[in-house]
Amino acid sequence: xxxxxxxxxxxxxxxxxxxxxxxSDLGPKQGECYAxxxxxxxxxxxxxxxxxxxxxxxxMMGAVLDKYEALxxxxxxxxxxPTINEVPGLAGPxxxxxxxxxxxxxxxxxxxxxxxxxxxxxxxxxxDKLGSSGGALGVPVGDETYDGEVATxxxxxxxxxxxxxxxxFTTDPPDLAKQLSDLQVPIDPT
Length: 190
Description:
Layout: H1 4-18, E1 29-36, E2 39-44, E3 47-52, E4 56-61, H2 62-70, H3 73-76, E5 87-88, E6 95-99, E7 107-111, E8 115-119, H4 121-129, E9 145-147, E10 150-155, E11 158-163, E12 168-172
Antiparallel strand pairs: 1-2, 2-3, 3-4, 5-6, 6-7, 7-8, 9-10, 10-11, 11-12
């Protein structure tokens, strides 16, 4: 009889082999597939692959993986599991991004100049509408900060703030907020 661990191992192994196996960006396997949170993981010389039946096998490495694990990874963070393999970001070859399964569809975005940061919730929706890493705000240069009901995140070319009570965005530069006036952001009660 098939087991969840066996199915995860089969799916991860197939994805790894399709990517080139030992010669892939992940390199050779290290150890066996194991339970991780509500899913499974496999270590490789240069990264990890995570699996749930809903997300499939998804790989991460380097600073994006380090940030994910520093936040608790699949067992203790509220990001969920990766929904895409880590890929280059729109900011060029020195950027990487991975998306996650939490309801607000957070991302971890990394650049060699600034490091790895989580962009999520209303700020992620605004950043995405403004062109994400290839748009008017540039790339994240810090994680969200909070001042009462206002969340703010700095980017390489500006910042965006979201007031969860008024449901209004403010931006620097200020004219970007006009582009966000019709953006509907679902509020997560937690």
